[in-house]
Amino acid sequence: KLQCPNCGTGLSQYNPGTQSIICPNCNNIVAVGAGKPEAIGRSRRLPNPKKPVKIGSVITLDGTQYMVSGRVRYKGWDDEDSWQWDEWLLAAEDGRMQWLSYDEKGFSLYTKKRFREPFDAKRDRSIKLGDRNYPIKENYPARILGAEGELTWRAQENERLHVAEGAAFGLRYSVQQSDEEIEVYTGEAIPELELAKASNDPAWIKNVKRRMSRAGTMQLIAGLCMMFALTSCVFSLMVTIAGEEVQRTSVPLRETAQFVDIEFDRPGRPAIVNMRLTSGAFPEDTFADVEVSMIAPDGFESFLFTRSFWRETGYDDGYYDESSYSGSNMFVPLSAGEHQIKIQIDESTVNQDLAVEMTVRRNIWVAQWFIGYAVVAGIFGILFYMGAPSVK
Length: 392
Known about the structure:
392 residues; alpha+beta; eight-stranded antiparallel beta barrel; five-stranded antiparallel beta sheet; 3 helices; elongated
């Protein structure tokens, strides 16, 4: 029978290889296994773990019963962030030991491996396990925040170590290196539902199944939203070439107005006017502003837009020569019937004859509508996907 040398609380030891027991009453770390029990330090009282793995509970894995004998909480960090994770020591009656770890990647089950190869957890980028080299994907310092239960080594609060880990070829591996020793563990991921069933915990099983169902529903909604967003993007591209071409003609540009007759049969449906310069390049550093208006069947004239054609040259980290000789604008006819498009030069520094090819397409859909639908659906898809409960 063991007693805590600090408070006298009775301590139970289940594992013959135990070297320390954390007193559940005063949290003193009691060294056992060699002579009289001795208090060698104190551990902070750990908060409840994020998952219901309890000290003293039994977990059945591959037909073998393991008792959860101890837990250690670690903290790791790098230049940008810090994180915590829990590890539980699982002890079987036949002496086998495994470590159950839970971090942001989910649960993993590790077994300690004999290791005789030279390795530095702080610098090496691969580790040889058996006949194969495995890449090190993460490398960071860590420390022990606290412990509870009984452990096979004398874990001290704030004890520093360096961790190197990775996953490849279906294997997860973790190396923990302190100033005194280096330990290597290999294992694999274990689904939370499988672990809950192995723990024979009905409440945990129910909770995992509920989160899995909710996650599946939210991921389905996210997928539908993304499909709708993709469909809207396709439609936005299609409408840019949709509509009925009703006019394609060459128009000379002059200060006096030029008129093009065109008929609209569906008032309220947008139309697009596209103009492309056909009279050749402008002289350097010149421009021409072209004003376009619409005359309705009742004679009412409304301004549509002004289009600038230009050429600019100069030096900016080298010589440049830039120009714009085409463009399009959308408008909405408000009545049906024969209309006239009025085109004339508003202002120009070009001393040459100018002409444009004008194309008019009527009865189109507005691409911006579909783009808006795509953006909204995409945002909802991302929110539903990110909000889905994690079940690993």
